[in-house]
Amino acid sequence: MAQAQRERAVVIGLEVHVQLETDTKIFCDCSTEPAEEPNTQTCPVCLGLPGALPVLNEAAVEAAVKVGTALDATIPEETRFHRKNYYYPDLPKNFQITQYDEPICQDGRLEFSVEGERRAVGIRRAHLEEDPGSLRHRGGSIDTADYTLVDYNRAGVPLMEVVTEPDFRGPDEVRAFLSKLEEVLEYLGVFDASRDGSLRIDANLSIVETDGDGEIDTAQLDAANRTEVKNISSHKGAQKALAYEAQRQKNAIKRGKEIQQETRHWDESRGITVSMRSKEAEKDYRYFPEADLPPLQVSDWKSRIEIPELPDARRERFRQEYDLSVEAADKLTSTKQVADFYEGVAGEFDPTLAATWVADELLGELNYRDMLITDIEDRLDDVTRLVELVAENQITVKNAREVVLRGMLDEGRDPDAIVDEEGLGKTGGDEVQTAVQQAIEENPDAVADYRAGESGALNFLVGQVMQATGGSADPADVNELLRERL
Ligand code: ADP
Ligand code: MG
Ligand code: ZN
Q1: Exposed, middle or buried: residue 83 (CB in 10 Å: 0-12, 13-18, 19+)?
Q2: Substitution candidate for ligand 1 out of 162, 200, 204 with most atoms within 8 A of CB
């Protein structure tokens, strides 16, 4: 008898480690700036020398409270630190100071959009911990290297580990969530995505049977054997690793094999996950309270911190206040810096024109050059001036885009200088503008023909403008101007 086909769903839960942007480490005064030389930003505390005592960095707590608030999490009155014990060369003290059963944030949620649909994922907890050091394997990978170097500059850098509920139903959702999480963290000013190693992801994946309605009950979730994929460091990496892992598990199930509960390593260069250790071999971390740090009273911090306008709220306000489309508002709030830049230009001008110039032209040209808005933050005045030149019809859109904007970005010149030096205003803006307007008003038939698709009609109108300006206008500019107006 053929067995009925059971419905199955991919279930994913994440443990995301984010580096909190602070000047100094979480338990000592060492700098968190990346250093050229290994082991130059260390001290007895972050090297775990006997007798050295940790002192909690307030900036890290403040950042954690901000994150918790932005994630709608519960922040308890009191939180505490624990020691997680294990032996590994990247861990000089042989234990990591982290949080265990009393994390600083619990029960949060984060909303995000995926393919136009709104989704929300539960945040089980988010806690503070210190980063271990970093290992450099020489002459091979982790299992084949000739020798390994260790650098403790990272040891003690503040991290926040954000643990989600197993609410994801596919790799695309994970990618969208990670973008949103990063966006929120950057808006809070506690995270720098461009920093190496600032985001590290462990992803748990299982294939779970669903009931008739595609629902999954908790018992099924807990019973499912899952794998934990480690060593993921980007959104795209997460999506690829999880797509691979989902397929690998589906194939195994199809062949009648049982999924082993295990830790797997994402091998980015080969695009596969490989088994590292089984659940049975998982270490017992012997957590116990960190006696060198007293319990932390967090309740007073909550009222002290300020939360800036977050991406969703800013997006909505942009739509209302500046009358922007959903797409334009999304683009213009993609980072806090872009949003600030846009508001800088929009404050001087027609917000719609400013939106076109920042969202379409400027971001497009920056992207093409692999530049970020932060690279031109000090040029707000120049961009504003460029939009002004267009708004006042002093230059054509084509010249603004192809000559002025590109000259500004490639050569760092200022827009007025470019207009002067390239003679872009040479057609005596106003006179040509007037002639163009006149030609349109006086030749409704030609305009109608052109709009009906007769391109010859445009030549006629160009001729009219040339005549009216006594031939002083540039036919190409006139052509362009007419097209814009029509
Ligand atoms: P552990 O106690 O082994 O660390 P937790 O229950 O704390 O496991 O969960 C760790 C992570 O595993 C969380 O991100 C959670 O969302 C995820 N997770 C739990 N159950 C599943 C499942 N069935 N499939 C995928 N991920 C899961
Ligand atoms: Mg963990
Ligand atoms: Zn130190």
Answers
A1: buried
A2: 204
pLDDT at residue 48 tops 70 = yes
**Cβ(173)–Cβ(119) below 8 Å:** yes
Cβ 355 under 6 angstroms from ligand 1: no
- Pocket lining: 84 vs ligand 1, CB cutoff 6 Å: no
Segment holding 277, helix H or strand E: strand 272-278
For residue 108 and ligand 1, the question of a CB distance below 6 A is answered with no
- 182: three-class secondary structure by DSSP: helix
Domain boundaries, the chain: 8-304, 311-422, 429-485
CATH 1.10.10.410 describes domain 429-485: yes
- Of residues 399 and 63, the one with the higher pLDDT is 63
Give per-residue pLDDT as tens, 171-206.
999 999 999 999 999 999 999 998 989 999 999 999
User: Cα–Cα distance between 436 and 389 in angstroms, integer?
Assistant: 18
pLDDT of 252 over the 60 cut: yes
Q: Which atom of ligand 1 is nearest to the CA of 165?
A: 16
CA of residue 203 to ligand 2 center, whole Å: 10
Residue 292 has pLDDT above 90, yes or no: yes
382 closest CA partner among 352, 353, 350, 357? 357
Q: Is 12 in the pocket of ligand 1 (CB under 6 A)?
A: yes
411 CA distance to ligand 3 middle (Å): 43
| 447-461 per-position pLDDT tens digit | 889 888 888 888 898
Give the HSE-up count for residue 91: Cα atoms under 13 Å, Cβ half-sphere: 15
Residue 2 confidence class, pLDDT cut points 50, 70, 90: very low
262-267 and 288-289 as β-strands: parallel, antiparallel, unpaired? unpaired
User: Could you report how far apart the first and last alpha carbons of the chain are, in Å?
Assistant: 71
Instruction: Please tell me the distance from the alpha carbon of residue 75 to that of residue 299, in angstroms, as a whole number.
Output: 8
Segment 343-356, tens digit of pLDDT:
998 888 889 989 99
